[in-house]
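Worked Example 4.2. Consider the chain below.
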Amino acid sequence: MTELQQVTDKLLTEGNITREEAIVLLNNRNKDTQALLASKASETAKSIYGNRIFIRGLVEFTSFCRNDCYYCGIRHSNKNASRYRLTKNEILACASHGYMSGFRTIVLQGGEDAFFTDELITDIVSSIKSEHPDLAVTLSIGEKSRKSYQAFFDAGCDRYLLRHETADSEHYAKLHPSTLSADNRKRCLFDLKDIGFQTGAGFMVGSPYQTIENIADDLMFLKALRPEMVGIGPFIPHKDTCFAGHPHGDLDLTLYLLSVIRLMLPSVLLPATTALGTIDPHGRELGILAGANVVMPNLSPEDVRAKYNLYDNKACSGAEAAEYLNSLKEEMRSIGYEIVTDRGDNAEFILNR
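Applying the procedure from the previous section yields the following structure tokens:
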């Protein structure tokens, strides 16, 4: 039995591998192993969630950001970015439209915009929950103090998404200005978990300077954090950043990692991300077949979707858009899955509450 077969068997039987074993999996990846892990990952997801795919309505409510992350299209120093902010009423209207369309989870995502104070965010969250008590509200607005996170939670926020981007401090420093650190990012994630949020982490696949060892470290960080959600997607460059000429992340490696993460964290909520659908027209379906079980159609007003431009050619229309939900349902049915409209809470989280 080869070393790859030994590690694969351990992952399939125990769902637990070491950093060194993760490196073996990554360095020796082949089509047969990838197909095997995808099949087992899909089986694992179905054993917990059935053939159900959960939808989250994405509301991208501000493209202003105080940060200057080197890879991001809405970074503070990008003078070509189109900036906008939705008003509270516009955000509430998006939430109500999503609710009437069958969504039971919305994700409020934006740059780290000082205009949206803690008081304003808590007011928006509590207003949404007041109108739609059974609607799960997720925030994805970056690094905050523990006090801020607690205020959001107390206002009724259910979930918080914060990709860690890379667990390695040196790699993190190559992608971000010195004002940001991997240690603080991790502090935020552990604070969120401790407060009681269903917490989402994740990383970019194929980001500049990324090594196999970096990815192994990311997997080990996820194993230690045990987030309820993990969002990974291929790195896609933006023309107005210093990484404009960098190639996008590898589709097959991203799918492989989706399968590995599903097997390591069986009950995790795992999106087939917009980035997957951006680099391949069937990327979303391939993600589901590799073990993902969440899709996130866009609920933002149509006139601002293209302005939330984190990377080039971001998919925000067609089946990526909430108004094409029926089309998305047909896509999922074609591969044997069903879009459902319940909240889709993490199974392990519910059991351990």
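Residues 13 and 34 are 16 Å apart (CA to CA). The radius of gyration is 19 Å. Compare this with Example 4.1 before moving on.
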